[in-house]
Amino acid sequence: MIEVANLDAGYNQSRVIHDLSFKVAPREILAIVGRNGMGKTTLLKTLMGILPHKGGAIRVGDKDLSKLETHQRVAEGLAFVPQGRMIFPSLTVLENMMTAVRGNLEESELNEIYSLFPVLRDMKHRKGGNLSGGQQQQLAIARALLTKPKVLILDEPTEGIQPSIIKEIAKVLREIRKMRDITIIVTEQVLSFVLDACDRLMVIERGRIIHEDLRERVDAARVKQLLAV
Hints:
36% of the residues lie in helices and 28% in strands. By secondary structure, the chain is an alpha/beta fold.
């Protein structure tokens, strides 16, 4: 579904991502884990076109997105839930979701979202800024899903969220994969969440992938060691 080939990226003259390549299959959930400052957010912002890439290619299906603007990449099927969620605090839950679509939200679309996130139905008229961190994260994921993406990209979705909601988000990601023909890429530091939600894990360090394994073969002690270095 998505292929990254020989990607180089960074800020101004500084390279952060170095000749990085990977593929994610349709309906696969991939976790990219690493310590702070190792390139996770830079990678995702480059996939979305928020940061310009310095070399390499980004393909969804057979379409090269490398030269497209961010809004064009969204139109081609990428959706991004950034670190910190970035919802509109002065808009209601329903109004936040409406920013993802042109015109009115279809009732069937809303019902699908509410089946995944029942709390959003209960709080649809509450201002986004009055939600808890976990509720805001659910709203941010819901808003991204309403763009009907082929690839859903999430940057550290468990940050600042209580453990019970972390488990709920892991469950929801698996449910989304069942309900839709969608590929999910998530960056994360919480290994328990990764092992609960994802099919495959990659460890990034200084802009390079240094370790990769399927979830059922992951040596958790080894990964923790890599994250603690």
